[in-house]
C-alpha cells in the first residue's frame, strides 16, 4: 500500500498510473505536481489526483513514492528541485522513454545518482497526450523496464517494481544502455519513420490527392505520427546515437528492397514480405502470451 504518491507531470503516463493504482486500491492519496493550475484542476475533477501543487519539492514532502512523468527535457529541472527535498525513506522513479539521458541528468545535478532514484520506463502509451487521455487500463499486462543504478538498494528497486505490478504491469530489469539500444529499434525508429513518411508525402506536389485516397493501411502505419512532436523530439535526440545507428541500418535494408524491386527480383521481394509476415505473427503471439 502506498500511503502518499506524488506524480510530477500529470499527463497521459502519470495520470494513467494514478488511475490504475486507485483502481487496485494500492494508493491512499495522490498529489499531482504541474505547471498549470488549469491542468491540475482538471486532473482533480477527473479523480486522478487528490490535490495539486506547482513545486516538486512540496509534492515530494511526506510522499513514500514520487514518480516523475515529465518530458525528458524537463527531467533535469525536476531533479534540481528535488535535490534537498527527498526525505529519508522516500523512493523516486521516473517514466522517461530514454534511460541513459536520465542517468546523465542525475549525474549533472547530484554528481552520483542518488540511492533513492530508481530509473524506469513503462512500455505502454498512446499517441494522445495530457491528463484527459489517461486511463486506468494503460499498463495492464504491459512491460515496465527498470534500469537500477549501482547506488540503488534492493528494497528501493522492489518498492518501484511492486508499484508497477499493482498498476497491472509486468516488471523486468535491464542495463540502461541496452534498454536504449532495444527501444531505439522498437519504438524510436518506428516513430521517426512514421513522422518522416507523413512529412515527405505532405511535401509531394499531389499531396491533396494522396491524403484523399489514403485509407486504413496509411492510417494504421502513421497513427504514431499524431504523437506530441516536442516529446518525440526530446526522445529521439536523447537517444541520438542508438537511433542514428538504427536508422542507418534500416536505410541499408530499405536500399536492398528498392534494388530488388528495380531489378525485377520478385523472388527477393516476396522473401522480404514473407519474413516480415512471419516475424510479426511471432510478435503478436508474444503479446497474446502475456494476456
Ligand atoms: N506517451 C507515451 O506513449 C509514453 C510512454 C512511455 C513513457 N513516456 C514518457 O513519459 C513522460 C511523460 O509523457 P506523457 O505522454 O505523459 O506526456 P504528457 O504531455 O501527456 O504529460 C506530461 C505532463 O508533464 C507536464 N510538465 C512538463 N514540464 C513539467 C515540469 N517542469 N514540471 C511539472 N510538470 C511538467 C506537462 O504539462 C504535462 O502535463 C515522458 O518523459 C515520455 O518520454 C511516454
Ligand atoms: O502506442 C503508442 O502510441 C506508443 O507510442 C507507445 C510507446 C511505443 O510503443 O513506442 C511510445 C513510447 C514509449 O516510451 C513506450 C511506448
Automatic annotation (TrEMBL):
<keyword id="KW-0560">Oxidoreductase</keyword>
<keyword id="KW-0827">Tyrosine biosynthesis</keyword>
<dbReference type="GO" id="GO:0004665">
    <property type="term" value="F:prephenate dehydrogenase (NADP+) activity"/>
</dbReference>
<dbReference type="Pfam" id="PF02153">
    <property type="entry name" value="PDH_N"/>
</dbReference>
<comment type="similarity">
    <text>Belongs to the prephenate/arogenate dehydrogenase family.</text>
</comment>
<comment type="pathway">
    <text>Amino-acid biosynthesis; L-tyrosine biosynthesis; (4-hydroxyphenyl)pyruvate from prephenate (NAD(+) route): step 1/1.</text>
</comment>
<dbReference type="InterPro" id="IPR036291">
    <property type="entry name" value="NAD(P)-bd_dom_sf"/>
</dbReference>
<dbReference type="InterPro" id="IPR050812">
    <property type="entry name" value="Preph/Arog_dehydrog"/>
</dbReference>
<dbReference type="InterPro" id="IPR046826">
    <property type="entry name" value="PDH_N"/>
</dbReference>
<feature type="domain" description="Prephenate/arogenate dehydrogenase">
    <location>
        <begin position="3"/>
        <end position="291"/>
    </location>
</feature>
<dbReference type="InterPro" id="IPR046825">
    <property type="entry name" value="PDH_C"/>
</dbReference>
<keyword id="KW-0057">Aromatic amino acid biosynthesis</keyword>
<dbReference type="InterPro" id="IPR003099">
    <property type="entry name" value="Prephen_DH"/>
</dbReference>
<protein>
    <recommendedName>
        <fullName>prephenate dehydrogenase</fullName>
        <ecNumber>1.3.1.12</ecNumber>
    </recommendedName>
</protein>
<dbReference type="GO" id="GO:0006571">
    <property type="term" value="P:tyrosine biosynthetic process"/>
</dbReference>
<dbReference type="GO" id="GO:0008977">
    <property type="term" value="F:prephenate dehydrogenase (NAD+) activity"/>
</dbReference>
<dbReference type="Pfam" id="PF20463">
    <property type="entry name" value="PDH_C"/>
</dbReference>
<dbReference type="InterPro" id="IPR008927">
    <property type="entry name" value="6-PGluconate_DH-like_C_sf"/>
</dbReference>
<keyword id="KW-0520">NAD</keyword>
<keyword id="KW-0028">Amino-acid biosynthesis</keyword>
<dbReference type="GO" id="GO:0070403">
    <property type="term" value="F:NAD+ binding"/>
</dbReference>
Amino acid at each position: 500500500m502506498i500511503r502518499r504518491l506524488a506524480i510530477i507531470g500529470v499527463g497521459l503516463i502519470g495520470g494513467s498510473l494514478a488511475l490504475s493504482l486507485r483502481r487496485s486500491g494500492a494508493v491512499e492519496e495522490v498529489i499531482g505536481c504541474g505547471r498549470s493550475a488549469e491542468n491540475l484542476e482538471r486532473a482533480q475533477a477527473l479523480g486522478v489526483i487528490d490535490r495539486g501543487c506547482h513545486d516538486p519539492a512540496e509534492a515530494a514532502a511526506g510522499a513514500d513514492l514520487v514518480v516523475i512523468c515529465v518530458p525528458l527535457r524537463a527531467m533535469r529541472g525536476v531533479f534540481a528541485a528535488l535535490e534537498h527535498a527527498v526525505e529519508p525513506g522516500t523512493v523516486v522513479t521516473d517514466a522517461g522513454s530514454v534511460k541513459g539521458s536520465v542517468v546523465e541528468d542525475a549525474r549533472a545535478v547530484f554528481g552520483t545518482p542518488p540511492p533513492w532514484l530508481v530509473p524506469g520506463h513503462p512500455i505502454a502509451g498512446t499517441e494522445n497526450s495530457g491528463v484527459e487521455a489517461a486511463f486506468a487500463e494503460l499498463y495492464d499486462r504491459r512491460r515496465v523496464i527498470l534500469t537500477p543504478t549501482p547506488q540503488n538498494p534492493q528494497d528501493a528497486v522492489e518498492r518501484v517494481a511492486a508499484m508497477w505490478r499493482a498498476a497491472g504491469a509486468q516488471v523486468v530489469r535491464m542495463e540502461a544502455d541496452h534498454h536504449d539500444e532495444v527501444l531505439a529499434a522498437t519504438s524510436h525508429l518506428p516513430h521517426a519513420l512514421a513522422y518522416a513518411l507523413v512529412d515527405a508525402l505532405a511535401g509531394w506536389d499531389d499531396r491533396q490527392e494522396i491524403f484523399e485516397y489514403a485509407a486504413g493501411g496509411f492510417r494504421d502505419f502513421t497513427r504514431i505520427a499524431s504523437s506530441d512532436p516536442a516529446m518525440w523530439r526530446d526522445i529521439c535526440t536523447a537517444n541520438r546515437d542508438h537511433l542514428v545507428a538504427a536508422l542507418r541500418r534500416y536505410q541499408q535494408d530499405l536500399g536492398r528492397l528498392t534494388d530488388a524491386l528495380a531489378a525485377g527480383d520478385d523472388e527477393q521481394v516476396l522473401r522480404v514480405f514473407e519474413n516480415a509476415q512471419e516475424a510479426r505473427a511471432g510478435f503478436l503471439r508474444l503479446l497474446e502470451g502475456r494476456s
